[in-house]
Amino acid sequence: MESNKPKYGIDAPGVIRNLILIGAAICCIVIFFPLVKIGSVSIDTRGLIWSGGGCVFGGVLMLAYSLYGKFKHRDRMLNYIAWKGGEQVLDVGTGKGLLMIGAAKRLTTGKSIGIDIWNEEDLSGNNIQNALANAEIEGVSNKVEIKNENVMDMSFADDTFDVILTNMCIHNIYNIEGRKTACKEIGRVLKTGGTAVVSDWRHVKEYNRNFRELGFQTQLLPARYLTTFPAITTVIVKK
Ligand SMILES: C[S@@+](CC[C@H](N)C(=O)[O-])C[C@H]1O[C@@H](n2cnc3c(N)ncnc32)[C@H](O)[C@@H]1O
User: Fold this and answer.
1) Distance between terminal CA atoms of the chain?
2) So where are the chain's domains?
3) Ligand 1 centroid to 153 CA: how many Å?
4) Residue 209 is inside which H or E element, if any?
5) CA of residue 113 to ligand 1 center, whole Å
């Protein structure tokens, strides 16, 4: 039987798998071969237990974020907005629709649009069909729309959205100029008077600088170490 629970996926599944496998392999070496003799040289592997344990622990914390923490973080991001119900919302890098659907649930007449380029390595089961299926299960299909678009080159007109949300997306652009372009595009399609909530685990100070250089008001919030791993920082941007 098909599950009728939404599935929002595991972030960076390959990284989690590698951390746990490498960590477990190191721990096995320490347990089964605490002293390795190569010729006349004897190597004590026991000091490696911290590296092995650290890798496994990191992988488990990343998994915990995907299974529990990201829902708390989604609600925190959505709570930064004083919702009226009629907002036009954009979720940049929506993946399986976590924030797009969360925002849609707070709308009455408004619309929540998700864009993505569907990188498979960034999220398990990352595709448009799974995002649409989650919207259906959550009962918000009539309030959402999903588009295949890159944040660096969006098709929307200037000043389209009252609210823009983005979580764990922009760091996937590996060059500084590309991330600057992404911030510029977010600023361009945000309405005057609108708010963008930009969350990520790295480069957030850089995004903050980019938005300030573009003339927006920003508030950089502290990293959340208890519910997110790697710890996520948020910048609130007002146009
Ligand atoms: C780690 S997932 C996070 C998904 C979702 N925001 C969440 O919090 O569950 C990052 C998402 O950003 C998308 N992405 C990466 N680079 C992008 C780009 N240049 N434009 C749009 N989406 C992008 C990936 O395809 C992926 O779906």
Assistant:
1) 47
2) 13-66, 80-238
3) 14
4) helix 204-213
5) 14
pTM for the whole thing? 0.94
Domain made up of 80-238: CATH architecture: 3-Layer(aba) Sandwich (3.40)
> Please, are residues 190 and 124 in contact by the beta-carbon 8 Å criterion?
no
Give the number of the atom of ligand 1 that is nearest the alpha carbon of residue 8.
Answer: 9
Do you know the residue count of the chain?
239
- Residue closest via CA to ligand 1's atom 23 equals 93
Residues 27-78 have pLDDT tens digits of: 999 999 999 888 888 889 999 999 999 999 999 999 999 999 999 999 999 9
Give per-residue pLDDT as tens, 107-162: 999 999 999 999 999 999 999 999 999 999 999 999 999 999 999 999 999 999 99
Ligand 1 neighbours, Cβ below 6 Å, are: 8, 11, 70, 93-95, 98-99, 115-119, 122-123, 126, 150-152, 167-169, 172-173
Contact, 97 vs 131, CB < 8 A?
yes
